[in-house]
Amino acid sequence: MEIALSGRSMIRRLIALYPRHMLKLLSLKGTVMRDIFEKGLALPYCSANVLVLGLIYGLAAIYFSQPLLNGSSSAGAGYNALLILMVGATVAFLMHAGAALFLWVFCRGIGGSPLFGPVYMGLGAAAIAFWPVAPGLAALQAGCLGPVLAVFTLVAAVNAAAVVYAALRTVTGLSHLKMTIAAVVSLIYIACFMYLWT
Do residues 158 and 145 touch, judged by C-beta distance below 8 A? Predict the structure, then answer.
């Protein structure tokens, strides 16, 4: 009975605090991460934001890939929308874990917190800033090209990077200079990794 009550109180607390915390985070007030960790909400926020990011990406991929999936090509024959949606969520969690690992290594290497958990959960909480990026990225990957879409996706990605910077700077305890160095090195490394992968 106590577990059920604590679960209900956690859900109530989550519903009451989530909008306020996320608005502060999206306003580049990374210090809100301290309150999130103190209240024990970092893991639920991380899980929820990364899951929703994956679902948004999956839905956008299904929508923008309709011509390919419904076309006469064998690539789209018998596609399962639910499977694509689930793959979108899975890929979001895998990309989140990989990015968190790279960021943790470089933040730790320059003198940040030696703990992986805060970086992982901080990046996950900041994943809300990537929600507008996901549809733009899915559209670009599906071949929907255009300057407005490209500019929108770029602006949304830069904003998301700023939110991640603010959140991770707080959780790692790095100064602006050290966090900037860690962020730049991480971006270069991840870009090189993605280039080699493709």
Answer: no
What sign does the CA torsion over 92, 192, 118, 179 have? negative
Dist. CA 38–CA 42, nearest whole Å: 9
Size (the chain), residues:
198
Query: Cβ atoms within 10 A of the Cβ of 144, count?
Result: 14
E-strand stretches of 18-171: none
pTM reported for the whole predicted model = 0.87
Token match 């789209």: residue? 76
Task: State the total domains in the chain.
Answer: 1
Q: What is the pLDDT of residues 72-110, one digit of tens each?
A: 555 555 677 888 889 889 999 999 999 999 999 999 999
Domain of 175 in residue numbering reads as: 2-197
